[in-house]
Please model this.
Amino acid sequence: MKVFGSKNIGVNYFVRKGAYAVIFKNQNEIGLIRTHEQQYFLPGGGIEKGETAEDALIREMLEETGYSIKNNYPFCHAQRYFMSTLPVKRPMLSDGYFFISQLDQKIQKPTEKDNYFEWINIKECEKLLFHVHQFNSVTDAIAHFVETPTCIDVFLDDGDKLQLIEPFGTEDLVKLNVRPIPLFKQDGEHLNVYKKRIKSKNWKAKWSKLSIFLE
Model:
């Protein structure tokens, strides 16, 4: 588990456990919630008494977006110490459980009137997301793309410096190699997901020099 921010000795932090979804669209965009204060967060929210993290995420998605979600994969647990200003100013520990999820069906109208679900380019996430541990979860989620050469993102930071997210390095991309990430090599079920994806993408027909490894 990664921890962000500083825990000051003698300070009583209000702990808010929450569940949040990283939802990709075509590996270029991610779904974020924009509040009426023009702040951006990952979809999700606080875990209520008696709920599992996944139960809370499903409920919060319906309240914030009106959409159901599916294939919820827990992949990250991270915390952030910070000074909250809304609804009151107080020291807070945001204790987040993160899932990679897929948007499913529109079930209802959102019940939270001041939240707006928007597709945002991944390159904008570091600048827009209010919580650093939520941005960290986005970079971790990229490491869960199926193939090593797709687990890469490039963006400009606030200082116009090029930043590279490459959890498995760039060698496969440069050498035109396609292989499954370790997660999708762990058993036959995961490996079949990779093989079906390779077949559906038909990359070899577009880029004849690709070397595709099936294990």
The CA atoms of residues 185 and 215 lie 7 Å apart.
